[in-house]
Design goal:
single chain, 232 residues, alpha+beta, five-stranded antiparallel beta sheet, four-stranded antiparallel beta sheet, 28% helix, 28% strand
Amino acid sequence: MTRGFAYLFVALAALSTTSACADPKVSMATGPREYTDSDYSQVLQRWTRTKSLFQVSELDTLLHVTATFESWDFRWAYVVKYANDYRLTVEQRRTLLERTLAETQDSHRFYVALYGTNHRWADLTRPNSSWIVRLIDDEGNETAPLSIELIARPGPLEKQYFPYSSVWRHVFRIKFPTTTPSGQPTISPDSRWFGLRFAGAEGNEELRWEIDNEPAKKAALGPKSHPGEHLD
């Protein structure tokens, strides 16, 4: 099988998978979770998205990107697994959980691994990168990163906790602000989805996380009383 046909096969397989199984909706709600370390892989899958930008005329993959949104929910599951793997004490786990959840207050963070046809141009930290990345939502908000950190050599932690990391892909931690300079949320509370847009001269692709707003709506409505019923 030639390199071009191999990429075509991968692209068609990815398209088939995408059409057959939609990504799950996610909840932005905070609060305690009841996870065990065995739940991590399921939570990782829920908060991870993958897309490919394919050039049919050249039988080549211009961009293949996978990203995990490090949400409140994801971080809780991550800390539970990390604490179990590294045998942290109860106090160490509590401290780590408080610190990692606090980071969600001032930044939206993503773990990103991507492949491009030109390895050097796929480095998002280089001034001549093929791609720029933006945080977007369906309300029209578009936000540039606060920082992009290249993980030059992913170690055992990255490869075990984010198994899509590999030597063939650039790996980054990308941080966006939670609010604009004017104080508006960078992900609107009314948005139906948010995502990452990768754009450049070769094209553009978006990773999207559909938001499940039903829990928030139910919480906003609150408990309903009935005749003769008293609420404490």
